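Methods: example folding runs. The two proteins below were folded one after another, and each record is reproduced exactly as written to the output file, sequence line first and structure-token line second.
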Amino acid sequence: MKSDRYKSLLMDRRQKLTGHLSVLEGTLEETPSKDWEDRASERQGDEVFEAMGQIELAELRRIDAALLRLREGSYGICQECGKDILEARLDLLPDTPFCKDCAK
């Protein structure tokens, strides 16, 4: 298995996520408008940003878990059944802890 390649993919994605989460956080901390209608629109936007942030935080947790599996030597092994995860699956989902069968 190409562990260095997967580590690089995971680290690159982690860096992009942390950068984007910082931008989202800054956007959410902006001073709200004094205009009531503008504030209502901003609040709707904030809800979308918060949802995006939650999705990205969940992905960040999966990436951190995958990096830990790499360090421990269990990366690429299904956490459910113990079989090898196909490289084609890892190419698509480098943070996955499950083989195709167990992910169902």
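Second run, written to the same file directly after the first:
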Amino acid sequence: MFLSSNFETNLGQENFNYYTEPQRAPIGVFDSGVGGLTVLRELYRQIPNESILYFGDTARLPYGIRSQAEIIQFNREILTWMQHVGVKMAVMACNTSSALALETVREEFDFPIIGVILPGALAAVQYGKRIGVIATPATAKSNAYKNAILEIDAIAQVWQVSCPEFVPLIEQNRIHDPYTVEVATSYLEPLIQQQIDTLVYGCTHYPHLAPILRSLLPSTVNIVDPAVYVASACATELDILNLRNNFPPMPTRFVVSGCPETFALTSVNWLGCTPTVEVVNCGSGILA
């Protein structure tokens, strides 16, 4: 178990203090599992000087079948823990959390929290008017993407498909399983029939399926990965708050609530290396 208000000491960085040098504090990124690694990669690319703490709530995935009350409670626990360890900003690298919990928890914490839905919706309307969204059941049911897109562009048309099997298949590293192709085909078929011109990944796990999804879609369909635009939103927010880190970043710290070995094995395909992964215990309902 790990909990500390002295985050710099735990990382072996004792020569500075986050209270006097807040720019050097890490950005907290969290998701139910490996999906948020797609956001992490974009953060590496767009703001490479930033130190990052990545949390995967693998003991409680998938989030997409949870109730709103559960999602809010999970997010509250994670953000409270991140507050204890001294993050300067949090990235909710989970569409389900962004759809069901973002507005609630933003009012409860004094650091910026960036979600994925608004950046994704803003990007989608730049690409087309016939927009398909693939998402977890909870995100699809919330209509978060549809509402956000229509608020930006009232004449856009939006079709959503609930994809309950995608996250478990990705977390089980079954991306190249023939069954995954069958599932993807069934999910995309109604959107292709509607002649969409744009597809939005309504879950941060889904870019891991990019080769399969791209092969099944007409070449004319634009694909929007909100992770790209979330990282850009983070960069803008850091500039506004004067929180950019101009020092060399610390190594990314990976923490999970479930099995660290499973997360490490699954994530190596996306990180290009095997991460060192810590575990926290959330069995009591509070991260500790």
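Comment on the second run: The longest strand covers residues 130-135.
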